[in-house]
């Protein structure tokens, strides 16, 4: 295939777009791959569309290879199936809703669990029909709160979504593993650096779910990893609990007057200076980690109106991480208490809340796993200016359970013992999820079993951000001059620059382009009437992995072959250049 820059629908830009922050956004716009229409809504121009279609094809091949069947559902959907699962309300402002001429409610699909479930329910009835895996590569719509970074987070974007339908849990586990392995192959083929992270800790009985994160400093997702290969979302990190200790013989708890100590810092300073504590034979150094901080929140179950108080106890040297707390309490909603909540519950003494008042007033109290039986703490005594010292878990108070709500810090041990954690950033490129029977329950998807009894179907859902991948690859593979496409997705195999105005040079470039085209290479030929400087700059910007310069060297029978990534230039004899390039681009 031969593409001439002289007629290609392409205008490169010298300036970064004003709204662009991340490199992929700047470069894809400047190199003429995409154009913005509205926030989070982009048009694909010829070179961009080629890359997009190539990625789409890689995804399609790997899905077909695991036996998933491609179908295509509409993006414009009636609300009823989404009402059946509650997502019409749950999605809130994140979906685009519209009305037809008769006033009927519709939405633009953000993801299609409901529709696939409904479809399978309509077509299949017997256990003999299962298992089945279906997928589509389709435009999705989400009214993202912060459409940013160009096509990285669009409001209209291309996703591959697949769904597996099985009769038994083992079947689901197998479908899940097939998808996971297919995703590994897809992202390897695309040359991405990525990690697979556990998406949820499963502490609340959540089903298996993993996310594929492309490693990128511009990513919105934070994850942690260890030298030994552990990787997880911060929400999914579990805290190794110290073994329970015998409470026998530990010093008795004592309440102390600790004036003006509503914060952990003021408390620790006071404890270390207080003579009365030393008099009690407690001569020791206290740190924030010896204190137990009790944070009060309120939670609300989905579909309910009333809020319930919940106490969270974490070591005083750590904050409560709201995202971890939300993930741990999901699907319940969480909010911090406001002044009126404190006014309503006078037993909550701000700055001095302790486990005693919570227990006495029936407030559920969950603690960090470090608050194991036999550990001793300094904590609030439920009275202004008072704290208890040596309050022992399992002896002086009994929490209702543990919760992963404390912040995770770099240097914390990985839960699998594989070393200290470090924080990194990533972009979600894929998600594999064992849904279980949630959707089948909501929509009544059963198969008639061999004994004539209905069997509830269990499902998985699996997504890949196809359009996002274009930007993610650009994010991982570029330099100051422009894009650098891996061969597997590049919009062309070679980019020929005709660098000179003479008839010989023009004819030489044309001839080489024709020969490479005939040899099966995809050629981008810069035959424009522009200066070599402009052409070189555009070639760097566009990012085809091999650039061939046909210029003055032609007189001595050579052309220059430049590797876009390394910048290395080699002079190659005209007679051998076609086979050299075939070799280089893997097209022979
Ligand atoms: P994110 O956390 O980035 O918002 P998500 O968890 O909402 O993503 P899923 O519902 O799991 O996304 O969708 C499957 C895949 O679709 C994601 O892994 C991601 O690659 C892609 N994707 C999701 N939202 C967008 C978007 N707004 N623009 C482009 N791609 C997206
Ligand atoms: Mg996701």
TrEMBL record:
<feature type="domain" description="Aminoacyl-transfer RNA synthetases class-II family profile">
    <location>
        <begin position="35"/>
        <end position="486"/>
    </location>
</feature>
<dbReference type="InterPro" id="IPR036754">
    <property type="entry name" value="YbaK/aa-tRNA-synt-asso_dom_sf"/>
</dbReference>
<dbReference type="Pfam" id="PF03129">
    <property type="entry name" value="HGTP_anticodon"/>
</dbReference>
<keyword id="KW-0547">Nucleotide-binding</keyword>
<comment type="function">
    <text>Catalyzes the attachment of proline to tRNA(Pro) in a two-step reaction: proline is first activated by ATP to form Pro-AMP and then transferred to the acceptor end of tRNA(Pro). As ProRS can inadvertently accommodate and process non-cognate amino acids such as alanine and cysteine, to avoid such errors it has two additional distinct editing activities against alanine. One activity is designated as 'pretransfer' editing and involves the tRNA(Pro)-independent hydrolysis of activated Ala-AMP.</text>
</comment>
<dbReference type="InterPro" id="IPR007214">
    <property type="entry name" value="YbaK/aa-tRNA-synth-assoc-dom"/>
</dbReference>
<dbReference type="InterPro" id="IPR006195">
    <property type="entry name" value="aa-tRNA-synth_II"/>
</dbReference>
<dbReference type="InterPro" id="IPR044140">
    <property type="entry name" value="ProRS_anticodon_short"/>
</dbReference>
<keyword id="KW-0067">ATP-binding</keyword>
<dbReference type="InterPro" id="IPR033730">
    <property type="entry name" value="ProRS_core_prok"/>
</dbReference>
<keyword id="KW-0963">Cytoplasm</keyword>
<dbReference type="InterPro" id="IPR004154">
    <property type="entry name" value="Anticodon-bd"/>
</dbReference>
<dbReference type="Pfam" id="PF00587">
    <property type="entry name" value="tRNA-synt_2b"/>
</dbReference>
<keyword id="KW-0436">Ligase</keyword>
<dbReference type="InterPro" id="IPR004500">
    <property type="entry name" value="Pro-tRNA-synth_IIa_bac-type"/>
</dbReference>
<dbReference type="GO" id="GO:0004827">
    <property type="term" value="F:proline-tRNA ligase activity"/>
</dbReference>
<comment type="subunit">
    <text>Homodimer.</text>
</comment>
<dbReference type="Pfam" id="PF04073">
    <property type="entry name" value="tRNA_edit"/>
</dbReference>
<keyword id="KW-0030">Aminoacyl-tRNA synthetase</keyword>
<comment type="similarity">
    <text>Belongs to the class-II aminoacyl-tRNA synthetase family. ProS type 1 subfamily.</text>
</comment>
<dbReference type="InterPro" id="IPR045864">
    <property type="entry name" value="aa-tRNA-synth_II/BPL/LPL"/>
</dbReference>
<dbReference type="InterPro" id="IPR023717">
    <property type="entry name" value="Pro-tRNA-Synthase_IIa_type1"/>
</dbReference>
<dbReference type="InterPro" id="IPR036621">
    <property type="entry name" value="Anticodon-bd_dom_sf"/>
</dbReference>
<keyword id="KW-0648">Protein biosynthesis</keyword>
<dbReference type="InterPro" id="IPR002316">
    <property type="entry name" value="Pro-tRNA-ligase_IIa"/>
</dbReference>
<dbReference type="InterPro" id="IPR002314">
    <property type="entry name" value="aa-tRNA-synt_IIb"/>
</dbReference>
<dbReference type="InterPro" id="IPR050062">
    <property type="entry name" value="Pro-tRNA_synthetase"/>
</dbReference>
<protein>
    <recommendedName>
        <fullName>Proline--tRNA ligase</fullName>
        <ecNumber>6.1.1.15</ecNumber>
    </recommendedName>
</protein>
